[in-house]
Amino acid sequence: MLNTMQTHLQQWQQTADRRAIFLNCYLLMTQNMLTAVHQQQFQDNPWVHTLTHRFADYYFTALAAFDSQQPTTPQVWQLTFTAAQDAQTYTLQNLFLGVNAHINYDLVLTVVELLEAEWAALTPAERTRRYQDFIQVNDIIGRTVDAVQDTVVEAFTPRLDWLDRLMGPVDEWLVSKMIGQWREEVWQTAVSLLNTPTPAEREPIRQQMETRALKIAQMLLTL
Asked: Torsion-angle region of residue 61: left (phi > 0), alpha (psi -120 to 50) or beta?
């Protein structure tokens, strides 16, 4: 997984492909996640390890579909990858478009996939432990945000450095809060899907999730 990310990142950096903006951020986050798992920072570290790897699969599946012009490319990723081809988009737009697509779309599907087989049999306490491990990731995101600002955003937009110095930790705090709120909504949506018995009944929930991610992406493009 990390090798695949690094290979794509090197290729994109060499060709000035702006998809490198999000992927660089994602690589840093994934490295920190795997370190946390190695250090046993979760209640169920193997489950979080599986979640981290399966989550990445969704990104690379969308990327492969887009590169081969497949109609299976999720709409939010189609919009995100297409925006990265436009030199007029801002660095932060490219970054948050990727974050939005991966969290508000991919993460819901990943959580549902991993919990599907066990959800009905989990006790309330076991479900709570799954949720707590899911939320624990927010702390790692918070620790990663400043590194993303310093090593990713400023590499593409050095003039933002003055804003980072002016605001101190405030901008990182705001980003962490926003992503934390998104991830809370992801969990609630995943639970709604898991508690809905049939694919036909789930589809309106899935469509609502996709519509929300698309609306956020469209809003980001107007900033």
From this structure: alpha
Q: Give the angle subtended at the CA of 206 by the CAs of 205 and 211, to the nearest 5°.
A: 100
Residues 123-182: tens digit of each pLDDT: 999 999 999 999 999 999 888 887 666 665 555 554 444 334 433 443 555 677 889 999
3-state secondary structure the chain: CHHHHHHHHHHHHHCCCCHHHHHHHHHHHHHHHHHHHHCCCCCCHHHHHHHHHHHHHHHHHHHHHHHCCCCCCCHHHHHHHHHHCCCCCCHHHHHHHHHHHHHHHHHHHHHHHHHHCCHHHCCHHHHHHHHHHHHHHHHHHHHHHHHHHHHHHHHHCHHHHHHHHHHCCHHHHHHHHHHHHHHHHHHHHHHHHHCCCCHHHHHHHHHHHHHHHHHHHHHHHHC
Residues with Cβ within 8 Å of 111's Cβ and at least 6 positions away in sequence, in order, are 51, 134, 186, 187, 190
Q: Which amino acid is at 151?
A: T
What are φ and ψ of residue 73, in 5° steps? -60, 125
Residue 201: both structure tokens together: 């009944």
Maximum separation of any 2 CA atoms in the chain, in Å: 53
Show the CA angle centred on residue 132, arms to residues 127 and 136, nearest 5°.
Answer: 155
Q: What region does 40 belong to: left with phi over 0, alpha with psi -120 to 50, or beta?
A: left
| Domain positions in the chain | 36-222
pTM: 0.90
